[in-house]
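step: validate -> pass
step: tokenize input -> pass
step: predict -> running
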Amino acid sequence: MRTYPEQLAQKLAHSLTNTYLLFGNEPLLKQEALQQVMDSARAHGFDEKHRFTVDAQLSWNDVYDCCQALSLFSARQILILTLPDNPLTTAQANALKVLEPLLHNDILLILEGPRLNKKQESAKWFTLFAQNGVYVPCNTPDQRQLPRFVETRCHALGLKPDHESVLMLAQWHEGNLLALSQSLMKLQLLFPDGELTLPRLRDTLSRHNHFSPFQLTDAMIEGKPKRVVNILRQLEGEGVEITLLLRVIQKELFQLCKMQEYGRNGMSLGNIFDHFKVWQARRAPLTAALHRLPLQRLLGLLKQLSEIEVMVKTDFDSRPWSALAEFCITFSSPQPPLR
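step: predict -> pass
step: emit ->
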């Protein structure tokens, strides 16, 4: 059963399941979900905890041994397995399948790991545990989901932000949910009445938003030039190496070129996305980008990007960040801006 992080507390208050699968790319949500499950488990008498990391050095017999203690005097146990960021090997997947029938009512199993794609969610080892367990996807809210996420967190703490305050909190904490959590606790202490307004936020908080190079390329693909410029300024201010950004953008451009070439050769868009293992949520923005960026324009952008790279490496008096900003605006605009 799939349960989202904001629903987990209610689910645990109703009943405790023997298997929880906590997967996602947001550390704060995973840590909170893990803590909620463990607190509930302890309240039900699970007093002993064993934690293992699934890697090449793991002795699976140690894991299996935890499930063998069936004495009347044995403690109820929490068994936590942390899965690797890379896909499981066949041996690791098979070892997990062996574990499942060994579980019993005195074992509470928690599997935690990185964000899973649809294929991984359909893997036999995953469905084996998920069919009778609770799957909690702990993923970072995207830009569109973040205001609602902020509002929900505020209400859970008894805070009453107006609409503008919700938007400001979302903007100031994008990509940094830990800082958001800390800011909301601070506001809860400072304002017992719970009322949040723009003046109160400006007087109390500072910006904690954090962006990655991949959020930059996402905004470029989505065709959002204003957001692109904001992210680029933030990355420059944080001292991110411009050569790193060039490599990430170059990789995205190469993939778009390949997609256009496959399309010219008659491959359907769905098969192209399957070939490149594109996340379902990214398919609509990529479809729009492919319509906006024909192959000839992509090749021109690659040439422009290589010129910026030469500038970075040879002309130390140049202003490559300005050139990169102009490039990113061109990439994300419906058509090249008039000069």
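step: describe -> The chain has a mean pLDDT of 89.
step: cleanup -> pass
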